[in-house]
Every structure is written in C-alpha cells, then in structure tokens.
Amino acid sequence: MGRLSFFTGMMSGLFERVPRRGAARRGRASGDGLTELALALLSAQGEVSGTRLAGEILDEYREMDPAGRAAFFGWMAGALDVDPAAIIAAAERYRDAPDRRSYMALAEAAEPRRQELLRRLNQAPGATLDLVRMRLDLLRLLPDHPGLAALDVDFRHLFRSWFNRGFLVLRPIDWHTPANILEKIVEYEAVHAIDDWSDLQRRVMPQDRRCFAFFHPSMLEEPLIFVEVALCRGIPSSVQDLLAENRVAMDDEDTDTAVFYSISNCQEGLRGISFGNSLIKQVVAELHQELPQLRTFVTLSPIPGLMGHLRAQDDESARKLVAAAEAGDRDAIAALSDKLRTHAAIWLAEEKRPGGAPADPVARFHLGNGAELHLIHALADVSAQGLAQSASAMVSYLYDLDRVEANHEAFATQNTVVMSKDIRALLSRGKQTGKTKE
Predict the structure, then answer these.
(1) How many other C-beta atoms lie within 10 A of the C-beta of residue 191?
(2) What is the pTM of this model?
(3) Which of 64, 116, 196, 294 could cross-link 68 (Cys pair, CB 3.0–4.6 Å)?
(4) Which residues pair with 34 in a beta bridge?
(5) Which ranges of 291-383 does DSSP label H, i.e. alpha helix?
(6) CATH class as words, domain 31-163
(7) What does the DSSP 8-state code read for residue 383?
(8) How far is residue 314's CA from residue 152's CA, in Å, rounded to a whole number?
(9) Which tens digits make up the pLDDT trace of 309-341?
(10) 361-408 confidence digits (pLDDT tens)
(11) Cα-based distances in Å from 379 to 172, 237, 296, 324
C-alpha cells in the first residue's frame, strides 16, 4: 500500500485539477453561443486561451437540457463533417503522387473537424471524464437521432487511443482504498450486487480475496473496470459458497485456484472500448507472481441469455425449468440439474449470432480472450437475478496459460468454441435425447 499511495500521490500531482470557473463567470450561452465558443476553440492558437475556452464550453454543455445537447451534437455532426469532394480530390492526388505532402493532405481531408474539437475540449482540467459522460449522453440520444451515429464513431476512434492499454493503471482495491472509490465499487458492481459495507468488506478484506481495477491517469478517482477474485482450492460450483457470510478464509498455501467471479465495467460512456481482456491477463500475471502455487485460473460467470433460450424451446424440461425458476423452486431445479446443464451447453456452444459467433455475450468475451468453455454448474446462483437470467446456472471458463493464445486465434479466425470433455459430453447427451426432450 505504501507504493500505491506514493504512485497515486505522484499521478495526482501530475494531473492536478485546477478550478475551471473564474470569479466572474460569463453568462449562460445559448445553443448558438455554444457553437460560437466551439468555433473559437477550433481557431484558438494559444494554449491558455484554448484551455479557458474548452472549460467554458464544457461548463455550458453541462447546463444544457437533452434537447439542447441533441442540437449541439447535430451541429457537430453536420457543420464539422468531412467534405467528400475534398477527400476524393486528395485521394486522387495521393494516388498520382504518393508523397508526404499528398498523404498529409489526404489525412487532413479525411478527418472531420469535430475530432479536433473533441481533442481541444480535452485540454480543460478534468475534461476526459466530462467527454466520457458526453458520449453517454450521445448514446442515449442515438435511438431517436440516428443521424448522430457518425459522431459516435469519432468518439470511439479517439477513446480507443486515449484509453489505450499503455495508459491504464492497475490498482488493487482493498479495505484501505479511499472510501470514495470503495463507494464506486459498490455502485458499479454489475454481476453480484453488494448489499452494504459489510458485504463489501467480505469481498476485499479477507486474505483469500482480491479485487483489481483499471484507472486512467486523468480519471484517478473513477474506476474503468474491476474484477473480484476468490482464492480457493479447486473450482467452486456456486457463488453462494464464495460470498457466504460465515465462511472461513483460507491461508495462501492452501489455495491452488484463482476464481474471477465478477467483472464490472464502470463507465457506460466507454461502451465498446474493451478493457476486460487486458485486465484479466494482467491480474493473472500479478497473482501468478505473488502466489506461484496457483495453477488454475477460472471464472464463475453468469449466463445472461439462458432463460430466454429456455423459453424459446419446444421442450418439456425447458418449460419445467422456466416454471421452477420463476417460482424459486430450488428442489425442482435440482431434480432437473442435468437437463439444465445440457440446455446451457447447447446455448453457449451451439447457438450463434449472424457471422458465427456465440449468441451469449459473456461467452464471446471469455472465448475471445482465449478461455476454454470448461464447466457448467446448476444451482450456482440462486439469487433473484440468477434465477431470472439463467435458472440458477453459471459457467466456468478456464484460462489455461499454455493454451490462451492458440484458443484466441482459433476463436478469432474461425469462431471455434474450445471446450472441455465435460461440455462435449453434455452436447452429446443433448443430441442423443433430441435436445433434452423427455
């Protein structure tokens, strides 16, 4: 923790945030006034004037209602768009004389001015978080304003550079982490809700528990994504066991397995910017270095689409499982546990999106990272959410460090679902019984 505190203090100093507003703040800008400020920022040459204008624009934007923000986005999408004729002309010049000058002209013509506006807005202290929130506003407007889609492409293009893995900071989260960040961990937990501070303490304080988060140097108090890890002996079959109030913590030397049981993205404005792959790989490296006796790295993951899949089946066991889950009848689910595991295997391994990738989003994430579809567990999450999304089933994806790269290549190039013998046996059983029909 000493090294972490030193690093945090150093980075906070480097990215110190100064007040954005002066004592005599200018009056509220209209929509036209905001576009005038934006054009002034695009023409500003001085760093000081650019920082001041960027801060004023972001302040005024924050005061706008959704209609005003939609209008501002519409202006950005239209007035600051590319000129297709200029792109064609520049491309033809580059084709005829491919030199440095013609390439620079083509690159300049192909980049819309709104990208430069976003870059200049990022000059203001604390602006990176403001721009992430601005994109969230845009995402919420897109269903009713599809003409703004090109602007979202620009946000994603810039964010992929600004939030490149090389800029991210991995920090452990424990009971000594500042309270404001712990509060955000509670708020952003998206897989297994954290009920209160005692619940949080059970997840980050015991010696056989770990939590890690990625931060960006300009957003040191806002986690981007975090993962909760349980150190165990063997692969657990239920999240209830992992989160039990009265469980006894294990000593380091008694553990051989690291279980990633919750991964939560924190910034909806960064949707589509992937951090999970890098997070898991770095956490595996950190844990392997700290605890070399760990041999197995595995998830205990939700299956969010399974209940929908069950409802779509013309199958007696599927109907019984849906009814049992809706009634919270654990005994009935237990009696059908083999059927549930078989249905889950079919959903995860055989149901596809157009293009051949698995239909299940969590499966796409872990298989794309190079994991193996390893084990399916019934009655693994009997919470209301677990019953509602998967009739209590969960799945373990295995990160075999010797196979991750090969698995990733197979999935990336051929949508190959690498799976264990246990999963293959479930799929074979499903075929023999006509997809679990009784």
Answers:
(1) 18
(2) 0.86
(3) 64
(4) none
(5) 306-311, 316-327, 330-335, 337-350, 361-368
(6) mainly alpha
(7) S
(8) 41
(9) 999 999 999 999 999 999 999 999 999 999 999
(10) 999 999 999 999 999 999 999 999 999 999 999 999 999 989 999 999
(11) 31, 8, 22, 12
